[in-house]
Design brief:
With about 130 residues, this protein is an alpha+beta fold. It has a domain of about 90 residues: 2-Layer Sandwich (Phosphorylase Kinase, domain 1). It has 3 helices and 6 strands. It has a 6-stranded antiparallel beta sheet with strand order 1-2-3-4-6-5, with helices on both faces. The radius of gyration is 16 Å and the shape is globular. The N and C termini lie far apart (about 35 Å).
């Protein structure tokens, strides 16, 4: 994960995304989902997947952003592929605090409290 990727050019991406990509160093942050996830050192993540695969994720991510607990969704675009551009989250990875388990626990408890206090009335996913 996070290995530098140099085989991408801004021209490889739809025009609407090029201004975010131009001048940025792209690193591959892909994991197990099958989608390609690129980290742009300008502070963004770009997820690329097959057409139709990211629409639901974009909708849910936008809802969490509106509720104040998600990162901003900058652009969702569906062309020959799906593209989801999000702002990088502010803060540090929990791995940076492994020697401070109390801090991790406190942060997790605060986040769970926020989740439990959400009103899912307008959540963009049907719950059966």
């Amino acid at each position: 994960m996070n290995t530098e990727t140099s085989h991408f050019s801004p021209l490889d991406f739809p025009e609407q995304l090029r201004t975010y990509i131009e001048g940025a160093t792209l690193s591959d942050s892909s994991s197990h989902s099958g989608a390609t996830v690129l980290y742009l050192d300008s502070g963004y993540y770009l997820k690329i997947d097959r057409k139709g695969r990211l629409e639901r994720e974009a909708s849910i991510a936008s809802w969490f952003e509106q509720e104040g607990i998600g990162t901003p969704v900058i652009h969702y675009l569906s062309t020959d592929k799906d593209y989801l551009l999000t702002k990088e989250a502010i803060g540090h990875n929990a791995l940076a605090f492994l020697d401070q388990p109390e801090k991790i626990c406190r942060s997790m408890a605060e986040a769970l409290k926020k989740l439990h206090n959400l009103n899912p009335q307008n959540f963009p996913l049907k719950i059966i």
